[in-house]
Design goal:
Nucleotidyltransferase, domain 5; alpha/beta; five-stranded mixed beta sheet; 5 strands; single chain
């Protein structure tokens, strides 16, 4: 069984999270410059089999795609070209940055450390992945 990887793609940075090999727990693994995402991912999949990539798609409150989609779609298209064997699942990522920031507050992260946008991106990717895993559990219960 391969890992599930989640990407919180941003214009400058991409937060990355992955499951354990049994796909039970979501863990933040890194934030990389979006320009270097494909190098990081190519290296990552050499050591870790990946079964699925979950990508957060930002939406507005009216469920329309947000302005940020224009930066994300080219990354998705390139990913599909470079890794056609790995399926992609797009998930709604509304509020993940706010939830990530609240998580840092609740976790007692110091004020200066909360300014670290890379940390927010990694936590956001972890939240996206955890939400996806929980949706799978919910579907199993039906």
């Amino acid at each position: 069984m391969g890992r599930i990887v989640a990407l919180d793609i941003g214009r400058k940075r991409t937060g990355i999270a992955a499951t354990d090999p049994l796909q039970i727990i979501a863990n933040g693994i890194a934030t990389v410059a979006t320009a270097h995402l494909f190098d990081f991912f190519a290296s990552y999949i050499q050591e870790n089999p990946v079964e699925l990539v979950v990508i957060g798609m930002p939406k507005q409150m009216n469920n329309e795609p947000s302005e940020a989609v224009k930066y994300i779609e080219p990354v998705i298209n390139r990913f599909k070209k470079l890794h056609p064997q790995i399926p992609i699942k797009l998930v709604d990522e509304r509020f993940t940055s706010k939830i990530a920031f609240q998580t840092m507050l609740d976790g007692g992260v110091k004020k200066m450390d909360r300014r670290d946008k890379a940390m927010v991106d990694t936590i956001s990717a972890t939240i996206i992945l955890q939400s996806y895993l929980e949706s799978l559990d919910f579907d199993k219960q039906k």
